[in-house]
Amino acid sequence: MTSLNLSRRGLLAAATSLPLAGLPFLGGRRAHADIFPAEEFTLDNGLTVVVTTNRRVPAVTQLLMYKVGAADEVPGKSGLAHFVEHLLFKGTEKHPAGVYSDKVAAVGGRENAFTHQDYTGYWQTVPKKYLETILDFESDRMLNLTLDDSEVMPELQVVLEERRSRVDNRPESLLGEAMMASLFRNHPYGIPIIGWEEEIRGLTTEDAIDFYETWYGPQNAILVLGGDIDAEEARPLVERTYGALPRRGRDSRKRPGEPASRSARRVKVTSPIAPLPSFSRAFLVPHRSDMALDDLEALQLLTMVLGSGTSSRFYSELVLKRSLATGVGSYDRAEVLDYPSLHIYGQPVPGVEIADLEAGIDSVLVQFLNEGVRDDELRQAKDRLAAAAILARDDPKTAPRVIGSAMAVGDSLEHLQAWPERVAAIPAAQVMALAERVLIPARSVTGILTPELPS
Questions:
Q1: What are phi and psi of 260, to 5 degrees?
Q2: What angle do CA 133, 112, 63 make, to 5 degrees?
Q3: CA 447 to CA 267: how far, in whole Å?
């Protein structure tokens, strides 16, 4: 199923287009408290609960985030986490299939779910007076899902069709899939979240039930409530609905590491439905446990300086000055439990060879590593991150997604709340030290997508 792109990376992307005139940076304790006014408590059964208040509209969002994702699947059963996400909508004895979704729609609400490599989330936004109703529904399907072949097998065909439409029929998705499989040769981040087709076809009802009973339990979940609600109002409702649930399954995970990469790798996809050629490159970032304090924020700043917006190094040099690309940029996958990555992409101007665009990107990287980050571009990158923090306050759905995804990969609420101060304090030297560790050819995979010319 689809999801709203409300992670920190989505906020950063939106912020790159904002005007900066008169925008104050959110430094200081008062500013950080203004982003997500939030309180945290834990139920006796281990469920972590965060309540973040936003009184702008009389609505509330419930996000239940499980600390399990595609990277936690049993080898050979790729796509299982995403498959189980679909099956959570099949219902329980108390609330049969379709009842939950019908109720949310009937009160003018919205709902959806999403699967990530490290977590799985389910959210609903409804008028405030229906909060206890959706708490009751969601807590019920945490432990009481009922599944049999008559419900599971048709949904398997839905997932296969989703793979065909979103991956197999999109050359850029096939390239990205191949690049990640090459970037991660041992760690499960190299396996697509939706799964390999052959392995999806082999999934069974028993596989789904086993995964559900292993990972879906209150002690392995984070409940985030956002909107027109505070902790004092929320706690008795949460206690009545989630409080009596017993612990179940696992609450820890262990994954293989990724061996050191000793050479750059290349992937090429040629497709008759690729409209235009494109260039991609992914750099493997060291494991989070091997990174310095606040290096993830330094990675976000590095990404913005290199390729976020029209003032970035890549765009100003390769689009505006040299006319090599129609579009070029970068993004990071920093919000992960294990190995982040940094990604570069570009489309050449018609008549420009991919090799020329690649050489141009390489020259910008070399120049950046030799010169270092300029004060003005680092300041602008920080301003844009400040803009992202301001945006986060305005949508009651944003705070739950940002908080839930951060806590699901090990961040504390306190650490997240201090994000603006941490960003403001990062010096240029830290950004460059990280760049020198990451922008190494041997740590990269380059992907080339080319249209298939008629014979």
A1: -60, 135
A2: 60
A3: 5
How far are the Cα atoms of 120, 134, 174, 355, 411 from residue 345, in angstroms, in the given order? Answer: 27, 41, 15, 13, 29
Instruction: Phi first, then psi: give them for residue 337, nearest 5 degrees.
Output: -80, -35
Rounded Cα–Cα distance for residues 268 and 22 (Å): 45
Instruction: Quote the crossing angle between the two packed helices 8-15 and 375-392, to the nearest 10°.
Output: 120
Contacts by residues 310-315 (CB-CB < 8 Å, ≥ 24 positions apart): 311/377, 311/380, 313/364, 313/367, 313/368, 313/377, 314/344, 314/346, 314/361, 314/364
d(CA 424, CA 36): 18
CA atoms of 59 and 327, how far apart (whole Å): 39
85, 138, 258, 317: the catalytic one is 85
Q: In the prediction, which pLDDT does 9 show?
A: 47
Residue 38's SS3 state is strand
Nearest one of 412, 409, 443, 445 to 72, comparing CA atoms? 409
| Gyration radius of the chain over CA positions | 23
The region of weakest confidence among 55-59, 91-95, 125-129, 143-147 is: 55-59
Question: In degrees to the nearest 10, what's the CA dihedral of 223, 229, 234, 238?
Answer: -40
CA torsion sign for 34, 38, 39, 41 is negative
According to the model, what pLDDT value does residue 8 have? 46
For residue 158, the tally of other CB atoms under 10 A from its CB is 12
Question: Within a 10 A sphere around the Cβ of 362, how many other Cβ atoms?
Answer: 12
Distances (CA, A) of 97 to 109, 111, 245, 429: 18, 15, 21, 55
Higher pLDDT, residue 223 or 9: 223
CA nearest 227: which of 108, 107, 58, 65?
58
The pLDDT value recorded for residue 1 is 55
Please confirm, yes or no, whether 199 is among the known catalytic residues: no
pLDDT above 60: residue 372: yes
Give the pairing type, strands 265-271 and 444-451.
parallel
pLDDT digits (tens, 9 = 90+) for 250-300: 988 999 999 999 899 999 999 999 989 999 999 999 999 999 889 999 999
Angle at 118 between CA 183 and CA 229, to 5 degrees: 145
Strands (DSSP E) found in 272-338: 278-284, 325-333
Select the more confidently predicted residue: 52 or 397. Answer: 52
Dihedral over Cα of 134, 136, 141, 143: its sign: positive
